[in-house]
Structures are given as structure tokens and as C-alpha cells.
Amino acid sequence: MSKTIKVQGMTCEHCVNAVQKAILKLDNTAKVNVDLKTGLVSVDTMQPRETLIAAVKDAGYEATAP
């Protein structure tokens, strides 16, 4: 199941990698697509959106539902 969140505070590819890594640590999470320009992150996961947002916040970025 694909879910989308909006991430604020990403400014470079290092930020993109940090967000991807934080999300991929979650169970039942496969593909993560991060668009640096728009801040939209699409994830193939069974995790609830709130769990994705919490993981991104733990990585040091702000995240919300789009």
C-alpha cells in the first residue's frame, strides 16, 4: 500500500538519504521515493502514516500528511 507524506527541511541529497534511511528501518516498508524539490515522500508500506511521520521527525525533519 502506497502512502505519501510531506517533509520540510530537506535541502540536499544528504537530507534525502537520511529520510530514506529512517523510513526503510521500519518493518514492512519497501520502496521509498523522495522528491527533494516538492518535499513529497511516497512509500510502499503497511505502516500507518503516523509511524512514517514519527520516523522522519526522529531523523530531524518536519513531516505532515500532504
TrEMBL record:
Keywords: Metal-binding. It holds the Pfam family HMA. SUPFAM superfamilies: HMA, heavy metal-associated domain. Signal peptide: none annotated. CDD domains: HMA. One of its GO terms (biological process) is copper ion transport. This is HMA domain-containing protein. One of its GO terms (molecular function) is copper ion binding. InterPro entries: Cu-bd, Heavy-metal-associated_CS, HMA_dom, HMA_dom_sf. Residues 1-64 form the HMA domain. It comes from Lampropedia cohaerens. The lineage of its organism: Bacteria, Pseudomonadati, Pseudomonadota, Betaproteobacteria, Burkholderiales.
